[in-house]
Amino acid sequence: MRVVLDSIEEIDAFVERWAMPVPNATRFAYSVRLSDGTQFTCKEWIMQDLTVGKQISFTMGTPQDKFGNPTTVDGVYTFMANDSSITITPNDTGDGATVLAGGTVGIASFDISADVDRGEGVRAHTETVQLNLVSGEAVAFVPQFGPESDPV
Fold first, then answer.
1. Which pick of 28, 33, 46, 152 has the fewest CB atoms within 10 Å?
2. Could you tell me if residue 85 is inside a domain?
3. Of 94, 106, 100, which Cα lies nearest the Cα of 53?
């Protein structure tokens, strides 16, 4: 599909309207190509379903350069929840974390950041992970009564 939009805000709105949500541990990215041929990734999402009241642990895989080659990062990763519906606790080695979902269904997100310049300077790269917080098993039934009536 080819769409011409005038601003990064219009691009973000278009992608969020037509491409999200992406279900179950899917990676989604989109790029912009400028008239001079320059191309760059504007936004990237990773989505995972997580049941409210449950937790899920993850570790970071091998980072990749823009050509898909394995590379490294300097130091450890940092993890930051973007809202209060999840709690994220890094593991002892700094290469992963455990995410605990609160009790409300909906979309939650957290950022993963690392120093990627592989030298003395610092150039942070951040990716956003979105979690689709879903309801658990039924533990209660709620009957919906109609109005009273006379027997027939």
1. 152
2. yes
3. 100
Side-chain-side CA neighbours of 124 within 13 Å: the count stands at 9
In contact, 76 and 124? CB cutoff 8 Å: no
Q: What is the mean pLDDT of residues 97-107?
A: 94
Domain count, the chain: 1
Q: List the structure tokens of 104.
A: 């409300």
Q: Which residues of 66-100 are buried (b: 16+ CB within 10 A; e: fewer)?
A: eeeeeeebeeebebebeeebbebeebeeeebbebb
> The domain spanning residue 115 has which CATH number?
2.60.40.10
Give me the residue label for tokens 């997100």: 109
Tokens at 138, concatenated: 């039924």
In a domain, 115, yes or no: yes
- Higher local confidence (pLDDT), 26 or 145: 145
